[in-house]
Amino acid sequence: MPPSLWAATATTKKEYPRLQGVHLADVVIVGGGFTGLSAALHLAEAGTKALVLEAHEPGWGASGRNGGQVIPGLKYDPDELESHFGPEVVKTAGGGPDLVFSLIEKHAIDCHPVRKGWIQPAHDSKALGTVLGRAAQWAKRGVDMEVLEKDRLDQLMGTGFYVGGWIDKRGGGIQPLSYARGLAAAAAKAGAGIHGDSPVKALSRAPAGWIVETGDATITAQKVILATNGYTDHLWPGLAKTVVPIYSFQIATRPLGDNVRRSILPEGQVASDTRRLLWYYRLDHQGRLVMGGRGPFKETPGYDDAGSLKSAISRLYPQVAEDPLEFVWAGKVAMTQDHLPHLHVLADGLYAGLGFNGRGVAMGTVMGRMLALLAGGADPRDVPFPITAMKPMAFHRLHRPAVMAIAEYYKIRDALEARFGSKAA
Ligand SMILES: Cc1cc2nc3c(=O)[nH]c(=O)nc-3n(C[C@H](O)[C@H](O)[C@H](O)COP(=O)(O)OP(=O)(O)OC[C@H]3O[C@@H](n4cnc5c(N)ncnc54)[C@H](O)[C@@H]3O)c2cc1C
Description:
Helix 5 (96-106) crosses helix 11 (360-375). The model has no long low-confidence stretch (mean pLDDT 93). Helix content is 32%, strand content 24%. The longest helix is centred in the C-terminal third of the chain and has 22 residues, at 399-420. The two termini are 40 Å apart. By secondary structure, the protein is an alpha/beta fold. Residues 30-36, 53-56, 60-63, 65-69, 71, 199-200, 227-231, 233, 235, 248, 250, 280, 292, 330-333, 356, 358-362, 364 line the site of flavin-adenine dinucleotide. Pfam families: DAO. One of its GO terms (cellular component) is cytoplasm. Keywords: Oxidoreductase.
């Protein structure tokens, strides 16, 4: 694992040795993050022989490096989602935290789950209008939520930076690498084969299904699931061009003293705000402030790259502005053009689920369950999410520079707004 807060504080890593030799499997799953591991667990529990092949170790990708915020829903508000895809899809997206927390409970996964809600604070009055509309749409569907007037919000956040917001009580926080390791252990216990250090290098059709090759192992499988998200390579032509991988970046302080700790998100919620380049933050289980946002396009950033997130900390929580940082790290988020995750049937017996747009803790777990349903033989009409055709982006190579340019532009607009109000930007 690249160094990070989560790598330093996770439950002990189990060894999942490289696969060698010739094997048969019902389903091979490429990628050992939340999506692949959830698929493996659900398949194994249904009695299907599933084999996870992970290039590094379970949780190595975004799953072991994210903010650990278990957030319900997708980037689209429920009314819009429902008008495009129907009520079942809204239920699926909103039900992600229930699945995550129930798996944690069922398999006794030791990952410091705290389910006190996800707060979305608004940085200006325009954003407040948007989040209140969102809150009303979820309230209409019976979701346990609360609109937060400024006074109550300030109290829950421990900062007066925002104008108001809402809390969705379905959400919460986890130690993400421990959750990934727990999913891997549960899947292995249920009968799935889990193999690290096993990069899949070739995939080809065979009369009986698919041939999956790692260099050290050849597996004949009836079905294959690709669960590689922001780390998707060229295993299946065109798939990598359906997402734009961008880096999200996090920093963490040392454990804070008790008094300071009680002044930041004192009731244990996690938060992500409404700025164009959003800040997402929380305390970890040992009382560190963990702050995330956009950073440099680097796999392993250094302390020198932490300037903009440190300034976020000093604006929100000046009481910790001078505290030294203990960790900086980053990982790849997979963005899609329509801001929705995609579920594909790429060929007969070949499935992919990817493109979580930074919302994959809950949705990746849900996607794994849906991929397991498909690979397990369910009628696609019974899978509660749209199955779409793969659409590689035209001029894909230009998307990342474009995203970077837009990010710079957003940074300037966020800064102008913070200084002079929303009209300035
Ligand atoms: C810094 C950061 C912060 C984030 N914060 C949040 C958050 O707070 N809340 C939230 O909901 N979401 C968050 N996300 C998004 C979330 O982490 C991801 O959406 C989710 O982890 C995706 O899971 P996954 O299993 O699909 O992909 P990943 O966890 O990225 O796993 C893909 C795996 O595929 C493997 N792989 C790729 N190619 C091959 C191959 N050929 N052979 C074998 N293995 C292969 C990789 O090694 C990798 O381990 C964040 C992401 C990042 C990077």
